[in-house]
C-alpha cells in the first residue's frame, strides 16, 4: 500500500524487463513475418517504451530530475522534488499528481498531495514522495571509504577499493538512482546478446494453499504480465520457423526425391518434401528464407516420421553391415580353403 523510492526503482526494473520482453517476442515476431513476406494481420499491443522514457530520460526523466534536486544548492526537500515533477511531467499521459496543474487530477481525492502516481504497464501505482531525496542521496563519503580501506582486516579493505589513495576520485559519488539505472542498462545490454527463454510464474491464490484457484487473481496476473498480447500474436502466427537448408537437411530422408542428396535450391527441395508428405497447404507458408509451420502437431508429425525413418535406416545399415561382414568372412574362408587344398594336392 505504501510505495517509496525502493519500490519505484524495482518497478522501473520491471518496466525495462517488460520492454525487452516485448521487443524480443511480440515486436520481433511480427517484424519477422513482414521481412519474410508472410501475409499477416498486425496485432496491436501496448509498448511500454513511453513509461521507461518517463523514468529514465536524461533530460526530463524522473530519475534525472531527482538527481538534479540532490545536486543543486539551496534548500532541497521532497516537496520541491514533487513540484519539479509537476512542472515537467504535468502533461505526460502516464503521470498523475494532485498538485499538478492538470485539471483532471485536482478533484481526485484518492491521490494525496504528497504523492504522485504512475500508470505502469501492470497498472497504476502511487508513490509516497517522502524520503525520495534522502534515499537517492545516500552516499558513502570519501573520508569514510578511506578510513575503511585502512582497516587491517583484508575483507573490509577489499570491500572499499574506492578508499585507496592511489585511486582517489574527486568527483561526487553517483546517486543511488544513477547506480541502479547503470546496473539496469548493463543488464539490458547483456540480455540483448542472449537468446532468453521466459518462464512466467502465476500465483493461484494469496494464501499459498493447494487446490485453491482464485480466478480474479489469475486474470489480473495474466493481464499485467502481457500474456494476452503474446497469446494473440502466437495464435495468429506460426508456431515454428526454420531456414530452408537445415529443414531440408533434417527431413530429407522422408522423401525419395530428396534422399540422400538434393541437387537444387533448398526451398525447392522443401516444397517437394512437403508435397510428397501430403501436408495441407494451410499448415505452412514459404518465406523468403524460412519455412513457417502454423501448428505444433504438424511439426510433431514430421518428427515422428523422421524417428521411424531413422529406425528403418538403422535397420538397413545393420543389415548391410552384417551381410558385408559375413561375405568378407566367407571370401576369406574360401581363399584359405583354396590355399590349403593346393598345398594338400602338392604333397598328396
TrEMBL record:
Biological process, per Gene Ontology? actin filament organization; actin filament-based movement; endocytosis
* GO annotation, cellular component aspect: brush border; cytoplasm; microvillus; myosin complex; plasma membrane
Q: Fetch the InterPro entries from UniProt.
A: Kinesin_motor_dom_sf, Myosin_head_motor_dom-like, P-loop_NTPase
Does ATP-binding count among this protein's keywords?
Answer: yes
Q: Which SUPFAM superfamilies match?
A: P-loop containing nucleoside triphosphate hydrolases
Q: Which UniProt keywords apply?
A: Actin-binding, ATP-binding, Calmodulin-binding, Motor protein, Myosin, Nucleotide-binding, Repeat
Concerning Pfam families, the annotation shows: Myosin_head
GO MF term set: actin filament binding; ATP binding; calmodulin binding; microfilament motor activity
Q: Does the keyword Cytoplasm apply?
A: no
Record-annotated Myosin motor domain positions = 1-307
Per the record, which residues fall in region Actin-binding?
A: 184-206
Could you say which protein family the record assigns here?
A: Belongs to the TRAFAC class myosin-kinesin ATPase superfamily. Myosin family.
Protein name, UniProt field: MYO1B protein
Amino acid at each position: 500500500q505504501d510505495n517509496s523510492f525502493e519500490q519505484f526503482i524495482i518497478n522501473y526494473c520491471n518496466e525495462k524487463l517488460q520492454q525487452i520482453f516485448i521487443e524480443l517476442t511480440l515486436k520481433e515476431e511480427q517484424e519477422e513475418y513482414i521481412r519474410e513476406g508472410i501475409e499477416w494481420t498486425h496485432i496491436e499491443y501496448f509498448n511500454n517504451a513511453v513509461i521507461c522514457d518517463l523514468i529514465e530520460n536524461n533530460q526530463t526523466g524522473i530519475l534525472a530530475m531527482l538527481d538534479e534536486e540532490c545536486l543543486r544548492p539551496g534548500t532541497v526537500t521532497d516537496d520541491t522534488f514533487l513540484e519539479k515533477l509537476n512542472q515537467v511531467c504535468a502533461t505526460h499521459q502516464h503521470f498523475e499528481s494532485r498538485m499538478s496543474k492538470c485539471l483532471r487530477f485536482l478533484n481526485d481525492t484518492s491521490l494525496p498531495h504528497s504523492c504522485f502516481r504512475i500508470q505502469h504497464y501492470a497498472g497504476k501505482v502511487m508513490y509516497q514522495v517522502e524520503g525520495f531525496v534522502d534515499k537517492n542521496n545516500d552516499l558513502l563519503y570519501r573520508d569514510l571509504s578511506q578510513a575503511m580501506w585502512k582497516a587491517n582486516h583484508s575483507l573490509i579493505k577489499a570491500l572499499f577499493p574506492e578508499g585507496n589513495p592511489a585511486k582517489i576520485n574527486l568527483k561526487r559519488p553517483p546517486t543511488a538512482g544513477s547506480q541502479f539505472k547503470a546496473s539496469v542498462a548493463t543488464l539490458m545490454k547483456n540480455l540483448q546478446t542472449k537468446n532468453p527463454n521466459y518462464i512466467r510464474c502465476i500465483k493461484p491464490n494469496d494464501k499459498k494453499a493447494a487446490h485453491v484457484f482464485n480466478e480474479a487473481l489469475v486474470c489480473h496476473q495474466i493481464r499485467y504480465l502481457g500474456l494476452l498480447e503474446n497469446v494473440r500474436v502466437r495464435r495468429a502466427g506460426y508456431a515454428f520457423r526454420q531456414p530452408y537448408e537445415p529443414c531440408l537437411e533434417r527431413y530429407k530422408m522422408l522423401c525419395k526425391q530428396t534422399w540422400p542428396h538434393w541437387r537444387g535450391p533448398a526451398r525447392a527441395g522443401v516444397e517437394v518434401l512437403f508435397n510428397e508428405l501430403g501436408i495441407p497447404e494451410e499448415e505452412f507458408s514459404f518465406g523468403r528464407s524460412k519455412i513457417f509451420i502454423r501448428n505444433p502437431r504438424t511439426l510433431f508429425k514430421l518428427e515422428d516420421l523422421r524417428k521411424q525413418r531413422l529406425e528403418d535406416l538403422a535397420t538397413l545399415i545393420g543389415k548391410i553391415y552384417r551381410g558385408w561382414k559375413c561375405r568378407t568372412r566367407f571370401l576369406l574362408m574360401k581363399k584359405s580353403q583354396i590355399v590349403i587344398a593346393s598345398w594338400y594336392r602338392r604333397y598328396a
